[in-house]
Amino acid sequence: MSRRERLVRKILGTATLCAAALPLSILIFMLILARPLLSSFSVSDLLTGSWAPLQGRYGILPMMVASFLLASCSLAVSFPVSLGCAGLIFGLTPPMLAVPLRRLVQLMTGFPTVVYGFVGVFLLVPTVRHLFHAGSGRCLLSALVPLSLMITPTMTLFFSDAFAAVPRPILLAAAAAGADPVQRFVWVVIPSARRGLAAGLVLSFGRALGDTLIALMLAGNAAQVPSGFLESARTLTAHIALVIAADLQSLEFASIFLCGMVLYVLTSCAALCAWKMRAATRKNSR
Amino acid sequence: MDPVVKIRVEGLTFRYGARTVLREVSALFLEGALAAIVGPSGRGKSTFLMALNRLWEEVPGAHAQGRVWVRLDGRERLVSDPSFPATELRRRVAMVFQAPNPLRMSIFNNVAFPLKVMGQRNKRLVAQEVEGALRRAFLWDEVKDRLDEDARRLSGGQQQRLCIARALAAQPDVLLLDEPTSSLDARAAGVIEDLLLTLKRRCTLVVVSHYLEQVERLADQVYEVAHETLEILS
Fold first, then answer.
1. Residue B42 has pLDDT above 80, yes or no
2. What is the pTM of this model?
3. At the topology level of CATH, where does A33-285 sit?
4. Would you kindly state where each structural domain of chain A is located, as residue ranges?
5. For residue B41, what is the domain's CATH number?
């Protein structure tokens, strides 16, 4: 190995180490900043208790439940839509329709979240208020619809990639056996791409969990465990956005780092699962 | 008695994008015979097979012109006839590829796949057909105790016979085979050759082959692909 190559290796190695150390340092940073709260209360109290800072309760359970509920439900809504869209892009529709559809989906992934939030505030919230007589109209349902719409393009693209990774000889074999395009899609493509689909689901879950603006603008932000979709709720991300302006020395301020750590761990787990599943898909398609 | 023409090809021209692979090809294939197509690589032998069951429609950029008739149920059917669904044509004119391509499912489900797409729900009948197809493909004795195993765990030769069994499951009239022994060792290739000779009694076979010795052993008709056309050798 020449001297120059050794130098390049060292530079790239250092860059890799720095990149790996950065997320870890964020976790440590959050741990340090959440210490006032962690030293005053037990972790189980914080993770299972209610949020009432005036009464000295700093539990983040309502936010965790709201985040999980909103992300899971939006995933359940957007899954069939994304599967259908990805199927159409994959070949259930002629290329003259599939290509523009893919372009549209790609374009939609680029829309800023605030656009969905505004559409929700001006169109959805009044509709929910009139239809269901649900207070201000800011509730889980009002956040669920735009959030599902927001993650659908991302999920569609993940699914499209999973379908595109299905080996061509298998598709030809199914066609040669007399299967029509729908039969091929349902019986051959989806089972072959199931790991990629699962990875897409997990990554989209991470995206839904991490969204801030839609929940902040539309879900109502009441720090309570929601008992229905017409109830106001506050997600972990919305909680961070709301409390960030609090006194830096307060325990409320420290709670946002606890929320950050919960989100960090959950999204890291999701990313790890997706990475494992995608690696297995690639290995399988060879 | 005059031999019956099973497949008639007239003026078949085939293009991939702007590249013409076959030009104005005409050919006749006889019922119950094994026809071999020989010729150098990349000259359109496999393409020709795909034109016989419209599988080329699944290949992006492919374009075919010309007419192909297949005699089915006593009458000639034009394969490009819009009223003749490609799915039905492909069940009657089945195809086996150069590299074994088992579907990602069990051995049983692989062979049952054409029956499933035909809408056959009778489990007993499906089991019978699967056993029959596996027996005709000389594979039953090797897999009868592991039908639920993933088909990809079979050896290369077994996988290719599985693909032949899958092609036979829907009782096709014609079987197209694209270099079925090229990815196999001599022993496995020998088994497939014996199988082809047996199958000839049941259906018409069109086999693309690189091996002239194999062609001499097996074929009743030999065509050679040369200069974008098909010439009869014997």
1. no
2. 0.83
3. MetI-like fold (1.10.3720)
4. 33-285
5. 3.40.50.300
